[in-house]
Amino acid sequence: MFLSSSTGILILQWLLFLTALFPSSVTADSTRKNFLQCLSQHQRSSCFTARNSSFSAILKSTAQNLRFLMPYVQKPQAIFMPASETDVQAAVRCGKQLGIQLRVRSGGHDYEGVSYASEMGEPFVVIDMAKLRSVTVDVDGNSAWVEAGATLGELYYRISESSSVNGFPAGVCTSLGVGGHIAGGGYGTMMRKYGLGADHILDVRMVDADGNILDRESMKEDLFWAIRGGGGGSFGIILAWKVQLVPVPEKVTVFAVRKTLEQGLTKLINKWQQVAHKLDDNLFIRVIVQPNKNNNNNNTVIGLFKALFLGQTDPLIQIMAHSFPELGLAEEDCTEMSWIESVLYSFGYPTGTSPQVLLYGKPLFKPNYFKAKSDFVRDLIPTSGLEGIWSWIMDGDGSLIILNPYGGIMSQIPESQISFPHRNGTLFQIYYQVSWQDGNITAARHMDWIRKLYSFMRPYVSKSPRKAYVNYRDLDLGMNKEGNTNYVEASAWGRKYFGDNFKRLVQIKTKVDPDNFFRHEQSIPPHLNFNG
Ligand SMILES: Cc1cc2nc3c(=O)[nH]c(=O)nc-3n(C[C@H](O)[C@H](O)[C@H](O)COP(=O)(O)OP(=O)(O)OC[C@H]3O[C@@H](n4cnc5c(N)ncnc54)[C@H](O)[C@@H]3O)c2cc1C
Ligand SMILES: *[C@@H]1O[C@H](CO)[C@@H](O)[C@H](O)[C@H]1NC(C)=O
Ligand SMILES: *[C@@H]1O[C@H](CO)[C@@H](O)[C@H](O)[C@H]1NC(C)=O
Ligand SMILES: *[C@@H]1O[C@H](CO)[C@@H](O)[C@H](O)[C@H]1NC(C)=O
Ligand SMILES: *[C@@H]1O[C@H](CO)[C@@H](O)[C@H](O)[C@H]1NC(C)=O
């Protein structure tokens, strides 16, 4: 091994620390020796063991889904917060040497909590990237290096601070970590014009399963292909991405038009299905569908048509009058603003919020308990299907559906360009979510609701296999008949997330991490048999 002396010291510290956690793995002699050496060293990175009084605060710090902080869910033995790339290498080398499972957390938004909780039963340590969050923008080079622990909001803010005519096309939610988000694709309001975050990666720095730092050149194109869309936690620990900036106008235009069933929502969504994927690439109109329950017992469904247009009001009004006049978009509905203001608007920050809020790293919404699923729609959903959805929505409580239009450049990029596969032929993506506040009390009812809605949707969505978005991770997809998650037979969810790209992902995993060091409930498995 070629290690710098500081890496060596860190490894010793780790050996000591891991020995305390897993006493059987190292002899008492080496423990003492390591201990003595460790004492003489200055600790550079924080490591919180479960006995540390700050442990639970650190664990919670970015955990978005409270379902995975429940007492009966398996927690890490410790959380390590590397302060440098060398620390990450040391963690991987020690973890590998001692056979300790590591999990990586950047923004903590994983839907099934696999970055900080486990359903696999083995003890594990979380490598939390929160201290590695610098963003360096190179305006002349049209690019930026962003460390894995930075949030999307930090990246967007730093870009806008350096240039009023550049942006980056990734997620709507500004508290996502770039480490996990881009690894799974990363779509947002500029998807129809520019594609995904993962479509705009120029280079990378990643620690592999041997603890080496690789970049695009040294990892070769196969692995570079796999980490752009193949989902986090399978191939290595992303240290930083080099992203390519995209041009945005000085002024963009946004609108949000709200319609209830009584105001003709069904007809409008019918029309939206036909046009949203064909509109000018500069226009992205998503529909956020929620129940509206009032005291008069006349419940209804509200659809919010929320849009970003990369241009000004006049051409937007013309496009809408020509392609979607039924929505009745008027000048008063439209607001022109800078791109960074539109980032706040699209996610739902109140008007007038300062973009600096993006630097605080705090999520806009309080963490709650939730479960989500996704679908891709390739054929128009008939009116009867839409009406079925409305009754599910009205039945649910804490329910939310978002329809995200595809088309534009998403149809031009070949399915095999990067490992994210959902491209041409997709009209729109559906996101289903249910959330609640009372922990375990109503969990079963809510979980049951979303699973039943998902079965109801089967006839209306992509088939053989039914596709899903890996960043909307759903452990139900790997469930066997007994209701247990089947970790071994990954082909069930693999083709749903990755289509024909799954096979190549497995081949690459087998080559770069045959021992399956980087693993979680739905990581890409090595050595999978494809029998048909
Ligand atoms: C409120 C909310 C809104 C969302 N909005 C969008 C959206 O608009 N668009 C969209 O595309 N998605 C969206 N998502 C989904 C989001 O993209 C995924 O949850 C994504 O995986 C989050 O990345 P993270 O780093 O925050 O999460 P984490 O929980 O930290 O990580 C997610 C996965 O990546 C792995 N991982 C984390 N860091 C690294 C690393 N440095 N190297 C390698 N693997 C790593 C983890 O082990 C885990 O498997 C949203 C999620 C939530 C909860
Ligand atoms: C908890 O861990 C941190 C980081 O390693 C350390 O600085 C602190 O002293 C620990 N606190 C206790 C009470 O052990
Ligand atoms: C719902 O109730 C409100 C308030 O009483 C009323 O104005 C509205 O017309 C009702 N809508 C329907 C569809 O009955
Ligand atoms: C996308 O699919 C449609 C219909 O299946 C086809 O006509 C079109 O040529 C495809 N476009 C690309 C860029 O592959
Ligand atoms: C509720 O908690 C119990 C343990 O207290 C657990 O076994 C069960 O799976 C939980 N139910 C749900 C739906 O999370």
Automatic annotation (TrEMBL):
Signal peptide location: 1-28
Keywords: FAD, Flavoprotein, Glycoprotein, Oxidoreductase, Signal
GO molecular function, one term: FAD binding
InterPro entries from the UniProt entry: BBE, FAD-bd_PCMH, FAD-bd_PCMH-like_sf, FAD-bd_PCMH_sub1, FAD-bd_PCMH_sub2, Oxid_FAD_bind_N, Oxy_OxRdtase_FAD_BS
Keyword Transport part of the UniProt annotation: no
SUPFAM superfamilies (UniProt xref): FAD-binding/transporter-associated domain-like
Needed co-factor(s): FAD
Coiled-coil boundaries: none
Domain FAD-binding PCMH-type: 72-248
Family: Belongs to the oxygen-dependent FAD-linked oxidoreductase family.
Name the UniProt record assigns to this protein: FAD-binding PCMH-type domain-containing protein
Organism, as annotated: Nepenthes gracilis (Slender pitcher plant)
